[in-house]
Design goal:
Blueprint: H1 2-18, E1 21-24, E2 27-37, E3 40-46, E4 57-65, H2 74-81, E5 90-92, E6 101-110, E7 116-126, E8 131-142, H3 150-164, H4 169-173
Antiparallel strand pairs: 1-2, 2-3, 3-4, 4-8, 5-6, 6-7, 7-8
Length: 174
């Protein structure tokens, strides 16, 4: 009886983890952490066998309620990541958007403890009058004197395109 309860418990916890999953770069990312605070809903998704404290790649989605323009969100976001900049970020504003506003950031961040870099591709957009949304892909790169950025440089445009066509609504509302 105890084994049956243990197995059922494990299956329920695994299935609840797998309910809110996202496919990116041909890999599955599933919800590992969620928080709603001060009108900001955040969901972090990681690959199987990883966690928000130990990950190699992560998807983060956010919804900023009651924000009617990107300029209401971007300055505070920049202020929060500016101390981590390892180099000047790329800020891209596409010409052909299907949203009300849209901007992309490509950034190389250095962790405060200098243990790793994070290459981040971030899409901020507004597709309604009530909120700003963002989805970003973070790719962890171990720190060393000579870092190999080959994979990042080869895939960054593809990552940006995948974020461009992604809808986060289902991930935020669960």
């Amino acid at each position: 009886m105890k084994w049956t309860l243990l197995i059922v418990s494990i299956l329920i916890s695994q299935s609840s983890f797998a309910d809110n999953c996202f496919q990116f770069d041909k890999q599955d990312y599933c919800e590992a952490w969620k928080k709603v605070e001060a009108g900001v809903s955040t969901v972090e998704l990681v690959q199987k066998d990883e966690s928000v404290s130990a990950w190699s790649k992560m998807i983060t989605v956010r919804k900023y309620d009651n924000k009617k323009a990107l300029k209401e969100v971007l300055p505070s976001y920049f202020k929060s990541v500016k101390p981590l900049f390892a180099m000047k970020p790329d800020i891209l504003a596409p010409d052909d958007v299907a949203t009300l506003e849209e901007v992309y950031l490509r950034m190389l961040l250095l962790a405060p403890d200098k243990s790793h870099y994070e290459y981040v591709v971030n899409r901020f957009y507004r597709d309604d009058e009530n909120s700003v949304k963002s989805i970003f892909y973070s790719h962890r790169i171990p720190f060393s004197e000579e870092v190999d950025f080959t994979e990042v440089m080869e895939k960054r445009d593809n990552w940006l395109e995948q974020l461009r066509v992604s809808s986060i609504d289902t991930y935020i509302t669960k």
